[in-house]
């Protein structure tokens, strides 16, 4: 009997020792409120603990340690940043990801990252159509996938039923496919198939070219005005704007031969952008259908019928000044208009239309990528 009890005790100790120390970053909320994203992240912490595989660092302890180290979590969305936080927290693995709404579908995407090597050890994801409260029901599955106890559903493409529009007209008999793409910085973006095109459903926020070279971040107005080379900036030079609205790039950055897009993707031509607009109802209607259901000034939110989730990142004038965050979305094309200008598409907070024009290449606009 003593031998049996001893064996059970050794087994239990081994089970405890086999648990992995992890910390969970607050998930990025895309087209949902930050409070909802935080609440759902807390629920995922609980579900991860209940798998029995992980020892999960409490939010309060995590915040206290990082605050003591003066580590800023705001804007920390890449895997490299998660690894840096994990090193300070002295955990073995980090969990990071996003919770987004595309059309009528909510998506949770989670990554389990090795703090020692920076590798992604596992992924978890779920997609459902319903209310945000229903997302709670799928977090158990995400935790099980990260713990290796449940299979991960295929992610690209994922098949969904076409949503119903707000004016009671139905889209054509088609299916909606969603997926993800990750840039060189480790930022993972939701993607959506609209017609025959695959689009990023978030504004670009990369800070390196595909070959690893740094894209210069120019904060000084005078330097920005004089540039005829690649550069990016955060709106108002404030990194807190990046999480929702992405970054702004001058045209030289998107035309750089080192390539701003991940492999298999590119900055759209003027014609490719117009194909999107025409498919979504034409220049006088497409804006309302392409705009995100949140993030726009006053009542400017759209119906986001196709999952494009356009967000109003504003722009940087060629002299370096910033304007119209929350009011207008400007998306570069790769098509030049003469030697000094380039075509772009603009969405309004107070109108359903999409406006096509050309501006100086020194402007800073948002970027959405399309798949090759």
What would your notes on this structure say?
The protein is α+β, with helices and mostly antiparallel strands and 372 residues long. The chain folds into two domains: 14-153, Rossmann fold (3-Layer(aba) Sandwich); 199-371, no CATH class. It is 26% helix and 27% strand. It has ten helices and 19 strands. The strands form six sheets. Strands 1, 2, 3, 4, 5 and 6 form a six-stranded mixed sheet that branches. β16 (328-337) and β17 form a beta hairpin. α2 (34-50) packs across α5. It is globular and about 65 Å long. The N and C termini lie far apart (68 Å). Residues 10-16 and 154-175 have low confidence and may be disordered.
Provide the descriptors you would attach to this structure in a database record.
single chain, about 375 residues, Rossmann fold, six-stranded mixed beta sheet, about 25% strand
Q: Could you outline the blueprint of secondary structure elements for this entry?
A:
Blueprint: H1 2-18, E1 20-24, E2 28-30, H2 34-50, E3 54-56, H3 59-68, H4 79-89, E4 93-102, E5 105-114, E6 120-129, H5 136-146, E7 158-161, E8 175-182, E9 188-194, E10 197-200, H6 221-226, E11 232-233, H7 242-245, E12 248-249, H8 251-254, E13 265-266, H9 270-279, H10 286-290, E14 315-316, E15 322-323, E16 328-337, E17 341-348, E18 354-360, E19 370-371
Parallel strand pairs: 1-3, 1-4, 2-4
Antiparallel strand pairs: 4-5, 5-6, 7-8, 8-9, 9-10, 11-12, 13-19, 14-15, 16-17, 17-18
Helix pairs in contact: 2-5
């Amino acid at each position: 009997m003593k031998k049996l009890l001893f064996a059970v005790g050794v087994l239990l100790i081994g089970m405890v020792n086999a648990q992995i120390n992890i910390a969970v970053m607050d998930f990025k909320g895309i087209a949902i409120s930050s409070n909802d994203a935080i609440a759902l992240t807390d629920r995922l912490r609980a579900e991860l603990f209940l798998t029995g595989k992980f020892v999960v660092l409490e939010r309060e302890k995590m915040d206290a340690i990082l605050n003591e180290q003066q580590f800023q979590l705001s804007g920390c969305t890449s895997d490299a940043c998660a690894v840096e936080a994990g090193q300070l927290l002295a955990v073995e693995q980090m969990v990071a990801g996003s919770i987004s709404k595309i059309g009528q579908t909510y998506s949770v995407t989670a990554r389990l990252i090795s703090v020692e090597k920076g590798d992604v050890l596992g992924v978890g994801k779920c997609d459902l159509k319903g209310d945000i409260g229903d997302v709670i029901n799928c977090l158990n599955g995400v935790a099980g996938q990260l713990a290796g106890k449940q299979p991960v559903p295929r992610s690209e493409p994922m098949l969904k039923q076409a949503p119903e529009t707000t004016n009671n007209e139905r889209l054509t008999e088609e299916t909606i496919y969603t997926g993800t793409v990750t840039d060189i910085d480790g930022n993972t973006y939701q993607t959506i198939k609209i017609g025959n095109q695959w689009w990023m459903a978030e504004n670009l926020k990369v800070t390196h070219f595909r070959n690893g070279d740094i894209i210069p971040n120019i904060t000084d107005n005078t330097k920005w005005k004089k540039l005829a080379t690649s550069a990016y900036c955060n709106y108002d030079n404030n990194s807190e704007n990046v999480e929702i609205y992405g970054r702004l790039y001058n045209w030289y950055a998107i035309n750089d031969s080192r390539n701003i897009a991940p492999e298999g993707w590119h900055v759209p031509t003027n014609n490719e952008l117009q194909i999107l607009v025409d498919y979504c109802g034409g220049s006088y209607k497409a804006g309302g259908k392409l705009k995100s259901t949140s993030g726009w000034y006053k009542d400017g939110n759209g119906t986001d019928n196709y999952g494009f989730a356009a967000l109003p990142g504003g722009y940087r004038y060629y002299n370096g000044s910033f304007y119209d965050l929350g009011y207008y979305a400007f998306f570069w094309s790769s098509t030049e208009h003469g030697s000094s200008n380039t075509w772009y598409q603009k969405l309004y907070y107070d109108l359903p239309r999409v406006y096509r024009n050309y501006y100086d290449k020194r402007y800073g606009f948002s970027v959405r990528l399309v798949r090759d």
